[in-house]
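Hey, I was hoping to borrow your eyes for a little while. I'm sending you its amino acid sequence along with the backbone structure tokens. Take your time with it, there's no hurry, and the full record follows here.
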Amino acid sequence: CHFAAESHVDRSIVAPDDFIQTNIVGTFNLVQAAKERLDRMALFHHVSTDEVFGSLGDTGYFTESTPYDPHSPYSASKASSDHIVRAYHDTYGLTTTISNCSNNYGPYQFPEKLIPLMILNAFEGKPLPVYGAGLNVRDWLHVEDHCAAIWTIMTQAAPGETYAVGGRCELTNIDVVKRICAAVDRLAPALASGKPRESLITYVKDRPGHDHRYAIDCSRLERDLGWRQTETAESGFEKTVRWYLDNAAWVESVRTGAYRQWLEKNYAARG
């Protein structure tokens, strides 16, 4: 199962070469190695993203048949890797499956991502940077539900199939941040100022090419393979906030100098 990828859109805008090397060349290296061991390769599952499909308007959903229309170096690199995997299935007979998933959240997510970044900044009383007006929409899925979907596809799907995986949980970015603020207010000591953590929200300059909306129709995965998600936004967000508050040692172990420099570089210039 091929999980490995550079996955942060903001970072792909600053350093696209890393994404080309990891996501495209890296995937080529893996499928090439798998091709050379076809007699021992039961399945090559490729984990991908809904961002390969581009951006939706206020209505509609991505499905397995949505044309590719990537808008960032990250999504373009993942689209390329999807095509490489399919090509190795069609050309060399490599047994493959692909999943295109919506935004994930949960424990152990690197804190450059929206949800862990907002949790940690809210807990520490730091500004909560929100791009533009915060009205971009994402479909959120708890990581454990995503893992269950991947296992379902790997064990039940026919070779060559692709499945869209979503959470049926569309939220604007500002709604996500406000939910996190409310959860941290409930679970952590109050700020020294006595103000609610929503007061920390700071709107910053939007990033280039920021897709308006992602939403996935995962009914084929539910209908054909019987997958069902178990976490709601309410239960999943609460568990995730609690995990980060309870695992300070892990958080500090990944918040290196390089990570802090990245945050400064990405957000300070947008203030």
